[in-house]
Amino acid sequence: MATAKISPCCSPVLHARLGKDDAAELATTFRALADPGRLRLLSFIAAQPGAEACVCYLTGPSGLSQPTVSHHLKVLNDAGLLEREKRGTWVYYRIVPARLEAVREALAPVPSEKKRVARGHER
Amino acid sequence: MATAKISPCCSPVLHARLGKDDAAELATTFRALADPGRLRLLSFIAAQPGAEACVCYLTGPSGLSQPTVSHHLKVLNDAGLLEREKRGTWVYYRIVPARLEAVREALAPVPSEKKRVARGHER
DNA sequence: ATGCAACATCGACCGTCATCGATAAAGGAG
DNA sequence: CTCCTTTATCGATGACGGTCGATGTTGCAT
User: Fold this and answer.
1) Mean pLDDT by 10 residues, chain A (123 residues)
2) Which of A34, A113, A114, B80, by CA, is between 20 and 30 Å from A75?
3) Element housing B2 (H / E)
4) Which residues in chain B have their CB less than 8 angstroms from residue A101's CB?
5) Residues with Cβ within 8 Å of residue A109, at least 6 apart in sequence
6) Which segments within A1-123 are labelled E, that is strand?
7) Nearest nucleotide by C1' from A86 CA?
């Protein structure tokens, strides 16, 4: 998959009127972030060296059962916010910074005035 | 100090381990953004001059019933993403850019990996 | 006063989701 | 092979949330 650039994920909210499908896609991403347990898991993983963590490291601190943690990690993985890597018996989840950045971009202020000035080609 | 100005809203996800309270608060904000209808309403309002819109302007384009639109606007208002102003018979909702910016900040990358390492002994 | 328009609230229905125990699947270690 | 550990999946349950019709509330006009 052509990883690279910020991602094909999110149409910006404030730049133009969102279509139903764009809105649905963006909402899915936000829904993945709309749970306290998942946000804590993200922060726990981010706090680890390399921004990656083994599942067995997460069940304790989160205070959630192992099935629940596994479920949340799957949701975050499906949303593209985490990537999964199996190493022997253990599974490591790693934060995907580009995806987080894409979500931030979706909330970016309107580009309007600056862009028109920068262009400067119309009259 | 342009950095710490933003808002009292959101503890950053990637900077440190989130406590349960911080996570719950942040999750509430994301939950407000986790619905296609609300995202579209935000974009519709943002597209209007002054980033504000009358409710009567929103019911049509959104394709939602008036009670549903009213409900969504209340959720966004409670989340601090919209502010409400009554003008005569009409009610105008306006986007709160600072709040959007605060959400973006909550997803900002870690301050600096090297700074943390350079500090040496912490746990 | 009456009538009308804009918005909010209420009540109910129904789908979605978070949670956990039980169980399955995959991979070492002996 | 058997046993144990790690993680994922299944199934059930309880709670939350989006939706809309009906109704209430507010404000303007006549």
Assistant:
1) 43 87 96 98 95 94 96 98 95 97 94 54 46
2) B80
3) none
4) 109
5) A14, B97, B100, B101
6) 52-54, 82-87, 90-95
7) D7
